[in-house]
Amino acid sequence: MYLCPGGLKGKEGREEEETRAVEMASHSQVLVEEKSSVRILTLNRPNQLNALCLNMISRLLQLFLAYEEDPSVKLVILKGQGRAFCAGGDALPLVRDIVQGKWRLAANFVTYQYTLNYVLATYSKPQVSILNGIVMGGGAGLSIHGRFRIATENTVFAMPETALGLFPDVGASYFLSRLPGFFGEYVGLTGARLDGAEMLACGLATHFVPSTRLTALEEDLCKVGSSDPSFVSTILDAYTQHPHLKQKSAYLRLDVIDRCFSRRTVEETLSALERETAHQEPHDWISTIIGALKKASPSSLKISLRSIREGRLQGVGECLIREYRMACHVFKGEISKDFVEVLLAFSIVDSS
């Protein structure tokens, strides 16, 4: 027992306070606006680029499940506070748990995360994700599985996991494998950054709307009185633009990407890229790709390539189940210890 302003409290009192504190934290980290039949959810950890912690994931899962059963809710809008939609999952607690030998706690985190991904991928009501900023890793899982994904001139998309000793997860083996040609392998293995125009061109985004028009778009979306996605689509189509790809866009080099990233192994892909440098002018872009692959975790590259290839033949549920098993092997250090070692090297946790 311990002393508090209200007197003595025992174990039950402490547990109640801890539960209340967790609920308050999750409510402040995911803001909810109710506008007629529309619910607007805002990720609210701007100083952490809206990185997903377990409280946020649990809260989002609770809300999405409740809204699906609530006939008064017709549409859900998801966005982020600040300059990021969501920069991914919060890796700090996971690495701490793994270093302390508690890998099952890390596995519990991805259990909730992947469950949320599956709920979004199979959601019966339209969901609009407004990607006005950074979208990486877990942020992709939170948005790409939804029906509508709005990119802007501020959008920066990436799956940087191979540089961290991981692999593109959150159902990425499903959605990357369905991009044109072998663009998914390129994005997943290199961690390349895409802008909003590239996201629209390859299909990761369904619409492109200038950021100055987002407020007006939200106002019109809040007038939707039906869960029929065609009503939402009509509104989005009225706002969408089709920006030109930049001259140096990787998507304009899809022929080179297909020649190199269609190879059976990572080693064959690297060899193909190196051959391209002999007759490509200029070849700075290819040299950058080669550099990124050589800096990445070798084991992560191999399992990422295999994961994306297997994803082509699997449904989203199968992909998430397989990725969960893969994540557990990574957390246990059975594949390699690159994940923990890389993050320790970046001083994300104190190795002492």
UniProtKB/TrEMBL annotation:
- Mention one GO molecular function: 3-hydroxyisobutyryl-CoA hydrolase activity
Gene Ontology BP annotations: L-valine catabolic process
Pathway the protein contributes to: Amino-acid degradation; L-valine degradation
EC number(s): the record gives 3.1.2.4
Q: Which UniProt keywords apply?
A: Hydrolase
Q: Which residues form a coiled coil?
A: none
* Domain of life of the native organism: Eukaryota
Q: What class of enzyme is it?
A: hydrolase
Q: Which residues form the Enoyl-CoA hydratase/isomerase domain?
A: 38-342
User: Reaction catalysed?
Assistant: 3-hydroxy-2-methylpropanoyl-CoA + H2O = 3-hydroxy-2-methylpropanoate + CoA + H(+)
The record's CDD domains line, in alphabetical order, gives:
crotonase-like
Q: What does this protein do?
A: Hydrolyzes 3-hydroxyisobutyryl-CoA (HIBYL-CoA), a saline catabolite. Has high activity toward isobutyryl-CoA. Could be an isobutyryl-CoA dehydrogenase that functions in valine catabolism.
Q: Which family does it belong to?
A: Belongs to the enoyl-CoA hydratase/isomerase family.
Question: What is the name of the protein in this document?
Answer: 3-hydroxyisobutyryl-CoA hydrolase
